[in-house]
Amino acid sequence: MDSINKSRFNRRHVLMGGAALLAAPALMTKSALAITPEEIKKKGKIVVGIQGDNPPWGFVTSAGKQDGFDADIAELFGKELGVPVEFVPLAVANRIPALTTGRVDILFATMAMLPDRAKSVQFSKPYVANVISLVAAKTTEIKTNADMGKYVIGVPRSSTQDTQVTNNAPSGTTIRRFDDDAATIQALLSGQVQAVGANMFYVQRLNQAKPDTFENKLEFSKLYNGACTRLGEKEINAAANAFIDKIKANGELAKVYQKWMKMDPPEFPASLDGIPFTVS
Predict the structure, then answer these.
(1) Cα angle, residue 132 at apex, residues 257 and 50 outer, rounded to 5°
(2) Per-residue confidence band for 14, with pLDDT thresholds at 50, 70 and 90
(3) Is 96 within 8 Å of 89 (Cβ atoms)?
(4) Vertex 177 angle, CA 174 and 178, to 5°
(5) Alpha-helical segments (H) within the chain
(6) Per-residue pLDDT tens over the stretch 206-263
(7) Are 180 and 89 within 8 A, CB to CB?
(8) What domains, with CATH codes, occur in the chain?
């Protein structure tokens, strides 16, 4: 091999080696984040991301205990795996980052099943339904989407309410985004906004603070919530789906529904467009 070709050969191998070294951290990170039910059992706990300020879905009691619909479902999943649950309360916008960076093992966190989210996380089968609406005082005149443009509307940042209000409000509507559901509700109570994008429990929470004052004005969509794991993690996704099938069949899901929602579970869809329930 002449000196010129030898130089090119050495340079090519150096570049290939450098590329491999640059790729290694990404491969190591992906490997380090992968988790299975067996690994959870060996670890001795499952770390669950949940909302900490959105009753009755997920909230922290005055005694410091994580409680709510999602907390009960997560506790049942921990029992199924035979490990205790460690909860990590998360703001709405921090749910997916907490999962994808490995801070939590799974999300039971009021995660509406949306195609855009399915690009970042793996959804399970749905285990609960939710209704997204616009809520305001009874005296506030809102009968159509066009009426939304007359008011300042609050939403939790990066939430389904944020998406629905943004998509339905007329161009030019003032939308204020807050860190979480509690801050959004407080903004309506304090007069910072005149309406809010809401889940199905906002009216109840608002009227607890100011009785017989607030009502649903517009209904945007009915959505389903699923548990979320990281993309490609087949075993933990399969375990979550088997667990959801089990609690639907044995009545445990119905008990949690009656406890927190005072109703029976709905019929759940067998599929949702653009949202796979299993790892392919």
Answers:
(1) 55
(2) very low
(3) no
(4) 145
(5) 3-33, 37-43, 69-81, 95-100, 160-168, 181-190, 202-209, 234-250, 252-261
(6) 999 999 999 999 999 999 999 999 999 999 999 999 999 999 999 999 999 999 998 9
(7) no
(8) 34-130+224-261 (3.40.190.10), 131-222 (3.40.190.10)
